[in-house]
UniProtKB/TrEMBL annotation:
The keyword Transferase does not apply. Its EC number is 3.2.1.51. Keywords: Glycosidase, Hydrolase, Signal. This is alpha-L-fucosidase. Transmembrane segments: none annotated. It comes from Streptomyces mirabilis. Gene3D superfamilies: Galactose-binding domain-like, Glycosidases.
Length: 510
């Protein structure tokens, strides 16, 4: 990202809300990422507990990414469908011009540091030669049945400095057709990996985990992906069931899946049906005006982390939301939001669609990254196995636009002063400002509930902007530039001591 990250975490720079008192915090990494709650908790109890929740190291690393990429690619790319059927002829998969280095270059130039590949979508077709299904690239004549998109993807991303993520859909319509998925089998102890005839693995590390027939199938595929393709930094699950009869629902073995991921990829964030990252609740890439990373959750269906409130509730973490969730919540948890959206109308490539405009993408950026969330932008490869030329250009234009919107921080090297309630920057001379970027030091939780930014002029401070939450990233867009030498951030309400990591002032160049 073009934005400098300045860290002000000494006690002298801490901002204390006018409605709260400073309380000594545990050292970073010692505080819990979730705290149990009870229906008998008062509002004060809930707010106090929320103030004590801290992110894990993997969550901090994930939130610092800002922008991540999604690559939907598979048989749907060639059939024109968005949801496959599971009975596709694998030979339809023919990306004869596959160039994952081209993907990586385009993503790098677009400002992305992590990319997630759809290793398996709901149709069950997998982009690596799995031992556990014939519905894969190995059953296609492409590259003589020796193609491995996942291998190429992982190697290319790392070669260009991009972290690797994998999306393995819990749904599997091909395994449904084979009587494995949603067959009503009981959970029993399974040894993972389950060795097969001709298995070339010698003395693999094994796990004994509870699973259904299909749950074991998923565990075996996860094992392959997480042990044979290098380090993985995000494992992405959704909660889809595919197009199966409603009375044939598969109860997913979330607890066992999470256990295996944690063991084999300990640094990987598990999203969005997972304990590390939550879905924001829409596929438009838009976060709430005030997005909280600490939200009430319940534990359901074999340990799945789930929303205590509706997934698309307009408020997930304010005091009012904590109280509203009190009858059903099991925990308050650090569960930050990921905003997914596709650069085109569809998730898979369709020749008749075009990428969103730079203006649209920039608006999405400010309403996701600028609202304490991470943007997950899908860029689907085409039938040749390339990112479309128009999309590649648009990614570069998007990054250049964000860089112009948020150029160098005018406050870099400026005189900084703080008191218990106010953080002041003296630029030394007057500058026009129309973009303000803020961040809390989330190692100490998310504390700010409301704040104002003020500029000094004509002998008095005047309000320039204000909002509710800050979190890991908050970007304020001023309707017109404001010229001033001295600027201040004033926290008007906070759950506990609010520690500010960034107070950046910009003059856009658009």
């Amino acid at each position: 990202m073009a934005i400098s990250r300045r860290l002000f975490v000494l006690a002298s720079t801490a901002l204390v809300a006018s409605t709260g008192t400073s309380v000594a915090l545990a050292a970073p990494g010692e505080a819990p990422s979730r705290i149990p709650v009870s229906p008998s908790d008062t509002e004060d109890d809930l707010v106090r507990k929320a103030s004590q929740v801290r992110p894990t190291a993997r969550q901090i690393a994930w939130q610092n990414l800002g922008r991540t990429a999604f690559l939907h690619f598979g048989v749907n790319t060639f059939t024109g469908l968005e949801w496959g059927t599971g009975d596709e002829d694998p030979d339809v998969f023919q990306p004869v011009g596959l160039d994952t280095d081209q993907w990586a270059r385009a993503l790098r130039d677009g400002g992305f540091e992590l990319a997630i590949l759809t290793v398996k979508h709901h149709d069950g077709f997998v982009l690596h030669p799995s031992r556990y299904t014939d519905h894969s690239v190995a059953s296609s004549s492409w590259r003589g049945g020796r193609g491995d998109v996942l291998r190429s993807f992982a190697d290319s991303m790392r070669r260009h400095g991009i972290k690797v993520g994998v999306y393995i859909s819990p749904a599997d319509e091909n395994q449904y057709l084979h009587g494995v998925y949603a067959n009503g089998s009981a959970r029993t102890e399974r040894t993972i990996p389950t060795l097969v005839d001709g298995d070339d693995r010698t003395n693999p590390r094994t796990f004994t985990l509870d699973a259904t027939d299909y749950g074991a199938h998923m565990l075996n595929q996860l094992y392959e992906v997480l042990t044979e393709y290098g380090p993985v930094d995000e494992v992405w699950f959704d909660g889809a069931q595919g197009r199966i009869p409603p009375d044939k629902v598969e109860k997913y073995d979330w607890d066992s899946w999470y256990t295996l991921v944690r063991a084999l990829a300990p640094d990987a964030s598990i999203a969005v049906s997972g304990p590390d990252v939550r879905w924001v609740g829409n596929e438009g890439g838009l976060a709430r005006e005030d997005e909280w990373s600490v939200v009430p959750v319940t534990r359901k269906d074999n340990g799945r982390t789930d929303y205590a409130l509706a997934y698309d509730a307009p408020d997930e973490g304010s005091r009012a939301a904590l109280v509203a969730a009190r009858p059903v919540a099991d925990y308050l948890q650090w569960w930050p939001a990921e905003c997914d959206v596709s650069i085109r109308d569809g998730w898979f490539y369709h020749a008749d669609q075009q990428p969103k405009s730079v203006d649209e993408l920039t608006d999405i950026y400010f309403r996701s990254v600028g609202r304490n969330s991470v943007l997950l932008l899908n860029i689907p490869p085409d039938t040749q196995g390339l990112l479309p030329a128009a999309d590649v250009v648009r990614l570069r234009e998007f990054r250049e636009r964000v860089d112009r919107e948020l150029p160098e921080d005018l406050g870099r090297g400026a005189v900084v002063r703080s008191s218990p309630e106010v953080f002041t920057v003296d630029l030394g001379t007057e500058h026009e400002v129309d973009r303000i970027r803020l961040a809390e030091d989330i190692r100490h939780g998310q504390q700010v509930e409301s704040f104002v930014v003020e500029a000094y002029g004509a002998g008095a401070w005047s309000r320039v902007a204000g909002a509710g939450t800050i979190g890991a990233s908050r970007i304020l867009l001023l309707s017109a530039p404001v010229r001033a030498r001295r600027w201040r951030l004033r926290v008007t309400r906070s759950r506990r001591t609010a520690r500010i990591a960034e107070f950046a002032l910009h003059r856009s160049r658009i």
